[in-house]
């Protein structure tokens, strides 16, 4: 065995996309505060090296709000330590991550009530009130 064969080589690489992504989030927050639309960044579409997604999560930290919902699998909406920056993770029924986004917005779209749901809720409340004579 030669000396070079005896040396264990561990190849690690980085894409260099962590810092530019954080800058993009900063710009998105500035745009949001100027009244522009929010921004959705699809983390699964980004070229990231192993461990870089974890570095992004650590850089963003965890804020005060966490919401979970179950629609075709569990989803977790986590406010980061930067208000207005949300980490949204979707899983399938087997628990595998099928989608991951960073949303820069006042409130993530998954938490907004849809007009058709509000109409159905209003109709239900009206029916309940019509049936209850009190």
User: What do we call the CATH homologous superfamily of the domain at 18-108?
Assistant: HupH hydrogenase expression protein, C-terminal domain
Low-confidence residue ranges: none
From the structure provided, what is the oligomeric state, counting identical versus distinct chains?
single chain
Query: What's the Cα radius of gyration?
Result: 22 Å
Strand content: 15-25%
Overall shape: elongated
Which class best fits the helix and strand makeup? alpha+beta
Q: What is CATH's topology name of the domain at 18-108?
A: Ribosomal Protein S8, Chain: A, domain 1
Total beta strand runs: 5
User: What is the number of helices?
Assistant: 4
Mean pLDDT: 89
Task: Write the CATH architecture name of the domain at 18-108.
Answer: 2-Layer Sandwich
Give the SSE string.
Answer: HHEHEEEEH
Largest sheet: 5 strands, antiparallel
Cross-sheet strand order for the largest sheet:
1-5-4-3-2
The first-level CATH class of the domain at 18-108 is given as Alpha Beta
- How helical, in percent, are the residues? 25-40%
Distance from N terminus to C terminus (CA atoms, Å) equals 90 Å
In short:
The protein has helices at 3-6, 18-33, 52-60, 115-131, and strands spanning 39-42, 66-70, 74-79, 85-91, 97-104. The relative contact order is 0.14.
Tell me about this structure.
This protein is α+β, with helices and mostly antiparallel strands. The chain has a domain at 18-108: HupH hydrogenase expression protein, C-terminal domain (Ribosomal Protein S8, Chain: A, domain 1, 2-Layer Sandwich). Helices cover 34% and strands 22% of the residues. The protein has four helices and five strands; from the N terminus they run ααβαββββα. It has helices spanning 3-6, 18-33, 52-60, 115-131; strands at 39-42, 66-70, 74-79, 85-91, 97-104. A five-stranded antiparallel sheet has the order 1-5-4-3-2. Strand 3 (74-79) and strand 4 (85-91) form a beta hairpin. The mean pLDDT is 89.
């Amino acid at each position: 065995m030669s000396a070079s064969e005896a040396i264990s080589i561990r190849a690690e690489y980085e894409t260099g996309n962590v810092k530019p992504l954080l800058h993009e989030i900063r710009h998105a927050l500035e745009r949001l505060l100027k009244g522009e639309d929010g921004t959705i960044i699809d983390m699964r579409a980004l070229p990231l090296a192993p461990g870089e997604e974890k570095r992004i999560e650590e850089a963003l930290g965890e804020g005060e709000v966490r919401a979970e919902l179950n629609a075709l699998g569990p989803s977790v909406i986590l406010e980061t330590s930067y208000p207005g920056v949300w980490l949204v993770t979707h899983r399938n029924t087997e628990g595998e991550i099928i989608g991951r986004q960073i949303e820069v917005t006042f409130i993530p779209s998954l938490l907004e009530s849809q007009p058709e749901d509000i109409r159905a809720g209003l109709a239900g409340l009206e029916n309940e009130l019509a049936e209850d004579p009190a």
